[in-house]
Write a structure and sequence with these properties.
Bound molecules: adenosine-5'-diphosphate, magnesium ion
Number of domains: 4
Oligomer: single chain
Number of strands: 22
Strand content: 15-25%
Structural class: alpha/beta
Strand order of the largest sheet: 12-11-13-10-14-15-9-16
Largest sheet: 8 strands, mixed
Radius of gyration: 28 Å
Helix content: 25-40%
CATH class of the largest domain: Alpha Beta
Shape: globular
Length: about 700
């Protein structure tokens, strides 16, 4: 008997080939697949008559097969199955690609129920690659979409999940994986979900009226209506929220019991440093720096979050804190989420603090400059916390782009630091814009400092959503700007076209941009798979203007600061959340030059009004907080799972709850820890929390 841990290969209907494809999606066990959620649902209307069909509509049609045949396409590798379907009045053409068995399994005279999009093929209305289902003899109404007849006959599966017009859509990879196969398989393994143990405390489930875990899985995959989707999402998202709060509270408890090295405020030196800068600090920067310095000057560890929109100058505030720490002969460590960013910070900070002759070290997986043992300042990625020598004499730890890490790294540092009962001070920097009230409810263990303004003189980034037909115009404009001495980022969602969904692959695009459209300029492509020297060289060349256009996957998303780059063009913009787009846009507008952001949604999405409307909010709003609110409200009932990089705590989760619920769960976490700090009475919960400790990104 298969169970939750069984390999998917053991499930009937999944062959070697399919299991390899599933593996690419990170799915190897039954449990993996059960937790692979749809990223959206398609709503099919009730049956439409063929004579009423319009191009572009998603419809359901029923009729009899008049003709069906398979043939090779013009491209030799392609196989086409073509059929004519008649509903008693009119005939519709249907095409399937690369499913040669269809022409054998379906016969003239069979009655089918078909769901799909109507397109125009050489003047003829055509349904391309529809989901189909055989109608049973005498059946008037449609059963469920995407089940094959065998399964309809299997009892229980058809009764338990009532007929619905909502069809789950999953992210697929290339190859032969179809929505249908995924759906059928999930339906098959759904009963195995009974092996899942409920790990949320019963009281909280009751108090917040959450549905049980297993039910949430059936509803997320096969919902009857929007309400069910929401209830499922609430249950599933709650786990994430609750664990985070529990973790956060338990860290707070530990930190509170520790002492920290007192960092005396070096007032004169700090003033000299600030006066040496080529600009004046903003009020937000001053106030935040002051709050931080006051905290450092205590024997208790600071736990503070510095929040400020992209470009608000958080780095400088961090540097002021590091300066004071080093002047107190304590070590300060700055941890960032990418190697590129670490290298950049190393450079800027070394330059800013040049006059002090501090020993500054860079330490990442592939860089090692200086010796952390002797360093005054250590800059690096998360490898820092694996380095024991870094922790000696450590006075302050700063985590940049905190939302990229888990809540755990703080805990890890405490755990590693075996020097008695002391802990360094902690400062986290984030541009994640969330309303203050929420912030307090989620980051329960952190004090909050805000930089709520941009440096003086910054303009708004001129932002606009474009269609394909306007591309040339946009390119001409960009060329003009580059000739005026500016530089540009071109951003692509992924490095490989690993997906049938039409978005551009950076690699292919590179050739087009570098060798054709922008061949008079210097273009480089940077992505996560390059070696560090290559990356470094490209970033250095871009910083020194040896490169005009930097094409990139989202590795440039966080933190990169090149003030002369004033243009950002984003392909496949629909694939990003607003908050992420805002982050990306934050790569420009880092000086007083006019800056521009060009958004190109992928072709199949430009007609989607919702998508365009969502993207257009970037035209109107320039503050991260406004955009986050829109993102939250738009995505409240709609898309929540899967579209963002998985693994990171996704703020859109919060849209599912009201503030009251979030506070309740926080108080609940607090109460549990007060009564039972080692979670002796909650072994399953404890195990979950433990898993969070092991996996840095599980949040
Ligand atoms: P972020 O908050 O996104 O991390 P950075 O710290 O990278 O922003 O700062 C963005 C840019 O603004 C940098 O080039 C920095 O030198 C500059 N900057 C920081 N503070 C000020 C200020 N008060 N006035 C003018 N420019 C500033
Ligand atoms: Mg930054």
């Amino acid at each position: 008997m298969a169970n939750l841990n069984s390999n998917l290969k053991e499930i009937k209907g999944i062959g070697e080939k399919t299991s390899v494809i599933l593996k690419k999606l990170g799915l190897s066990t039954v449990s993996d697949l059960l937790f692979y959620f749809p990223f959206r649902y398609e709503q099919y209307e009730n049956v439409t008559e063929i004579s009423d069909l319009k191009i572009g509509e998603n419809v359901k049609v029923q009729g009899e097969i008049e003709l069906i045949e398979g043939r090779r396409g013009r491209k030799r590798k392609m196989h086409l199955t073509e059929a004519l379907i008649n509903d008693g009045r009119e005939t519709l053409k249907v095409i399937w690609f690369n499913q040669p068995y269809l022409a054998k399994s379906l016969k003239v005279g069979d009655r089918l129920s078909l769901s799909g999009k109507i397109s125009d093929s050489y003047g003829q209305l055509t349904m391309v690659s529809p989901e189909y289902e055989r109608m049973k003899i005498g059946e008037e109404l449609i059963g469920k979409i995407g089940t094959n007849e065998k399964e309809v006959n299997e009892k229980n599966s058809s009764e338990k999940y009532a007929p619905t017009n909502l069809v789950p859509i999953y992210h697929l990879t290339e190859g032969h994986l179809t929505q249908k196969l995924l759906r059928t398989t999930i339906k098959k393994i759904l009963p195995l979900g009974s092996g899942l143990k409920e790990w949320l405390p019963k009281d909280i489930i009751k108090e917040l009226k959450l549905i049980p875990l297993q039910e949430s899985l059936s509803l997320i995959h096969f919902p009857k209506d929007e309400k069910e989707i929401k209830r499922a999402k609430q249950r599933l998202a709650f786990s994430n929220l609750f664990l985070r709060q529990l973790k956060s509270q338990s860290i707070k408890k530990i930190i509170k019991s520790k002492s920290a090295p007192k960092i005396n405020f070096q007032e004169e030196e700090t003033r000299n440093f600030v006066n040496s800068l080529p600009f004046k600090l903003t009020d937000g920067q001053k106030k935040s720096a002051w709050e931080i310095l006051k905290d450092l000057d205590k024997n208790q560890p600071m736990s503070r979050l510095l929040e400020g929109d992209v470009g608000s100058g958080k780095t400088l505030v961090a540097v002021i804190a590091m300066l004071n720490t080093a002047l107190n002969a304590k070590k300060a460590a700055l941890m960032v989420p990418s190697e590129i960013l670490a290298a950049q910070h190393f450079k800027t900070i070394s330059k800013l603090l040049e006059a002090y002759n501090f020993k500054i070290t860079l330490k990442t997986r592939s860089y090692k400059i200086g010796n952390p043992e002797e360093a005054d300042l250590v800059i690096g990625t998360q490898t820092l916390i694996q380095e024991k020598s870094v922790l000696k004499n450590l006075g302050l730890v700063i985590v940049d782009e905190q939302h990229r890490f888990g809540v755990n790294q703080r805990k890890k540092i405490i755990d590693l630091n075996k020097e008695g009962n002391s802990s360094p001070h902690f400062l986290s920097l984030t541009a994640t814009p969330i309303p203050r009230s929420l912030s307090l409810a989620i980051y329960g263990d952190l004090d909050l400092s805000l930089i709520d303004e941009l440096p003086l003189g910054r303009k708004k980034t001129k932002t606009k959503v474009y269609r394909e037909s306007e591309r040339e115009k946009v390119y001409d404009f960009i060329k003009k700007e580059i000739k005026n001495g500016r530089q540009a980022f071109f951003v692509y969602p992924l490095i490989k076209a690993s997906d049938k969904i039409s978005f551009k692959s950076a690699q292919e695009e590179y050739e087009k941009i570098a060798d054709a459209d922008f061949k008079e300029f210097k273009v480089a492509l940077i992505h996560g798979k390059l070696k560090k020297d290559e990356k470094e060289k490209i970033m250095a060349d871009f910083a020194t203007k040896k490169i005009d256009i930097l094409m990139a996957t989202t590795v440039i998303e966080v933190g990169i600061d090149i003030p002369n780059a004033t243009i950002i063009l984003i392909e496949g913009a629909n694939r990003f959340g607003l908050a992420q787009l805002h982050q990306l846009r934050g790569r420009v507008n880092r000086s007083n030059l006019e800056s521009y952001c060009f958004l190109f949604p992928s072709n199949d999405e430009i007609k989607n009004e919702k998508t365009v409307e969502r993207l257009e909010s970037l035209e109107k709003y320039s503050r991260g907080l406004d955009l986050a609110k829109i993102d939250l409200s738009l995505r409240g009932g709609g898309e929540v799972f899967g579209s963002y990089q998985s693994g990171f705590f996704d703020l859109s989760v919060l849209a599912l709850f009201d503030l009251e619920t979030i506070k309740k769960s926080r108080d609940f976490a607090y109460k549990i820890l007060e009564e039972d700090k080692d979670l002796k009475n909650y072994p399953l919960l404890k195990a979950k929390l433990g898993a969070l400790d092991r996996d840095f990104h599980l949040e």
